């Protein structure tokens, strides 16, 4: 999220989380001095890429962030130090067919959630999905967010996945680029449709 009116509009849908990117190289980089008031049940997620602890702490204080999503090459030690700032931590890993889930072991006690995104040219927002069957190889107890190019065309696949053992630890669905009118502006109608379709039996 990036623009005040759009933030307020999408917050009215009562999402569990809204993400704000704090990475200058991103075209969705957050430049507002403050975030408009959100629905009381919506948590603010700050997204960072290899930022310093000092920078993350400053943004937490400025924007009253609830959760920090680490989207770079952060070590488990960095994750532990971010948790000490009094926030929850999501560590992102980029998925492809060769991903080795054993690399997550050292992060298990350092994070609250994992987020599995598609491996692409950018740290995120590439607009493409990965092969979700590889999630059958995930055996840790840390809950995860599913991300990467998810849109309304993935509804049937999502429903199938969520009924499978691979989704036992799936905590939430992260959407972004497939719901944009243009960079940083989310389409409320498309999001409403997605939510309705996903929850249909």
Automatic annotation (TrEMBL):
It catalyses: N-(5-phospho-beta-D-ribosyl)anthranilate = 1-(2-carboxyphenylamino)-1-deoxy-D-ribulose 5-phosphate. It comes from the Bacteria. GO terms for molecular function: isomerase activity. Pathway: Amino-acid biosynthesis; L-tryptophan biosynthesis; L-tryptophan from chorismate: step 3/5. Residues 5-194 form the N-(5'phosphoribosyl) anthranilate isomerase (PRAI) domain. Its EC number is 5.3.1.24. InterPro entries: Aldolase_TIM, PRAI_dom, RibuloseP-bd_barrel, TrpF_fam. The keyword Cell membrane does not apply. Keywords: Amino-acid biosynthesis, Aromatic amino acid biosynthesis, Isomerase, Tryptophan biosynthesis. SUPFAM superfamilies: Ribulose-phoshate binding barrel. Belongs to the TrpF family. This is N-(5'-phosphoribosyl)anthranilate isomerase. It comes from Flavobacterium fragile. The gene is trpF.
